[in-house]
Amino acid sequence: MSPAGRASDPSVPPLRRLIAARPVTAFLVVAIGLTWLALILSIALLGNAMPGILAELLILLGTAVLVTRAAGGKPGVRDLFRQTVRWRVGAGWYVAAVLALPALTVLIAAATGTFHQPADGWAPVAGSYLLNTLIVGALLGNIWEELAWTGVVQRRLMERHGLVAGSLLTAIPFALIHLPLAFGDKGFGGTPWPDVAVAWGVLLVFAPLFRLLVGIAYLGTSQSLLIVALLHASFNASSADKFTVFDGAWQQIAAATVLLVILARLRKFRALAAGAGHGAAVAP
């Protein structure tokens, strides 16, 4: 049964009909509300945001399954999880997802004089990056996070509003759910409000760029959440506190912006090439 059919079928329980009619709204209300509660309690009571972040992954995954089951039934849930193992994509997407961001970050750092050679050589840095990206980041965390954000929210918004508008709309709740993390290091009483303002400002600037990058990767790989998760984990692992070869916190955002421009141009070029090929095929 289609989501529209579930929303109007009187034999379906009222709550399930409501979720089927407004799956994105239902997801955002439940996921953001519970995640904020988990993060606030974790920071306030434990002085550590990590338990709240782990709870966030479970909340996102559980809410994604709940909403998808209500809107699309068991076939919808199966299709959602199949996207997490959709690995048959072009090799270039793996290069873009795993290697492009650290390479661009290093190039930007070198060009701006903020790069420095790793004290113990490149082998420990590369090994730590791959561990944080492929295992700790993508497989244990980001694939489930993006199953929710891309597979449930952004997919529906892009289907309804297009790539750009759907991605930018997704960026709003994506940024909103992360706002409590600005207090993660020093707590609610010890974090100066100027630091909070800077953290929130960076988040609000970064979120639209990142969701656009994710949207292009998701559509370009025929809905591979695996590639999206690798891209998300690669960005996280390219930060200065993990990829310790540069000073500053802006280089990875600049690298993500450059990668976004490159992928957007390639997407436009492929669309033009496909249109030209179609025109040649049907020309008299």
Set out the fold topology.
Layout: H1 3-8, H2 14-21, H3 23-46, H4 50-82, H5 91-111, H6 122-161, H7 163-177, H8 187-190, H9 193-220, H10 225-237, H11 251-282
Mean pLDDT: 90
Helix and strand element order: HHHHHHHHHHH
Instruction: Classify the helix fraction into a percent range.
Output: over 70%
Any idea what the radius of gyration is? 20 Å
What would you call the shape? globular
Termini separation comes to 43 Å
Number of strands: 0
> Can you summarize the main beta sheet?
none
Total number of helical segments?
11
Oligomer: single chain
Low-confidence stretches: 280-284
- Which structural class do you get from the secondary structure elements? mainly alpha
- Tell me what portion of residues adopts beta-strand conformation: under 5%
Whole-number count of domains: 1
Summarize the structure.
With 284 residues, the protein is mainly alpha-helical. 79% of the residues lie in helices and 0% in strands.
Task: Describe the fold and architecture.
By secondary structure, this protein is mainly alpha-helical. It has one domain (3-282). Helices cover 79% and strands 0% of the residues. The chain is globular, with a radius of gyration of 20 Å.
What are the defining features of this structure?
0% strand, 284 residues
